[in-house]
Amino acid sequence: MEMRRPSCSNSLPRSEAQIRLCPEKFDESSSNDVQRLPPVDGGFQAWMFLAACVMIEALIWGFAFAFGVFQKYYHAHEPFQDSNMVAVIGTCATGISYLSCPLVIAAMILLPQWGRWFSSFGLVIMCLSLALGSFSSNITHLVLSQGVGFGIGGCIAYSPSILYMDEWFVHRRGLAFGITWAGSGVSGIIFPIGLEKLLNRFGFETTLRVISVVVFVLAAPFIYFHKPRLPVRKTVDYQRLNFRFLMTRIFCVYQLGNIIEALGFFLPGIYLPTYARSIGATDFLSSLTVTLLNLASVFGSVTMGHLADRYHAITCITISTVGSTLAVFFLWGFASTLPTLCVFSIAYGLFAGCYSATWAGITHEVRRVDPSADATMIFSVIAFGRGIGNVVSGPLSEAIVSVDSWKGSAVAGYGSGYGLIILCTGLSCLLSGVCIVAHHTKCI
């Protein structure tokens, strides 16, 4: 395995040096000795910040990724069952959260005095959007509330996790992000079960109202800890809004692989339950496939985050790429029984579900080439790339399913009517390794 190269810069000492050298740029709290700042990589406040990140991650992405439960309900009930825009709701909720990330991060940098309150603003927008969505009488109302409103609020509430993580965790940053990503895996097990029971018993109106209250009650106690470690600046640090890294070859190659990976990453979560039913599984066992995927992604994310702190980004991406590619082509592709499909769910969750945990390593490598680049801006643009793949994958997969010419003419999964979906997912896993080839051919 290739070990990580030492960084040419360390954002923590630089930030604390700014407090010492330019105290006039910070508020009155900066007059305290820098040694009185909370410790990094540990200590009560650092772990509570991480706990807040995990909770917010779990509530935002756990709910958004469970939209398949709502989609099934909306297609089966008036007044939405005849609409062809139901899938747009879920696409907006996740896509907008990813795509608006650079804008929200930039806004937090430009408004440093308000950054502390972004989590609160986002939480209110999310919960209000869900509550308003419960009064929807047509699909457009749901798109604007459960889709657009929730997506914007989620991004605003979540962005402090990205902006302040570098302040709280330095040597364990990859592990911290891995633990954060694991939050959505845990909630990805709970939300689908809870939502299905609520929808079947009370309908979408009561369900959205209940969820809006639950999200607020669970998130509110952690908002206090979702804060910066360093004193708030009085002036805007425009140097952080440096986008020259976008033109570097190393970033472009990594981002290309990230977008390609995202094109297929979300497809198993969408189609596994339907595929399981096609091979004779009950509704409960069908949903179990996604539960296993989410559960495995928890362990995959934490493990990969730990590895990202110690090994080169290419080593981490290679593990994810090879594991997920083999799982798709050989386990899902030849899965004709439920046990085999469950093994695939676990393998895919372990290897593909941990891909986001490599972003800390990617950020490290980009900053090694361009030390002036801000880590949080790099991270937010990587998230934007994942959003592109997320938005495109929905309509792309629908088009693929409608023209699958392998149905009945190929073996096992390849001839099930989902053969091209399996192929598309596998190719996205394989081609996401473009950065591996570029690295070993010395292109980056």
TrEMBL record:
Gene3D superfamilies: MFS general substrate transporter like domains
SUPFAM superfamilies named among the record's database cross-references: MFS general substrate transporter (SSF103473)
Primary localization class, coarse: membrane
Transmembrane segments: 46-67, 87-110, 117-136, 142-163, 175-195, 207-225, 246-272, 284-304, 311-332, 338-363, 375-396, 416-438
GO annotation, cellular component aspect: membrane
One Pfam short name: MFS_1
Protein name stated in the entry: Major facilitator superfamily (MFS) profile domain-containing protein
Organism: Penicillium flavigenum
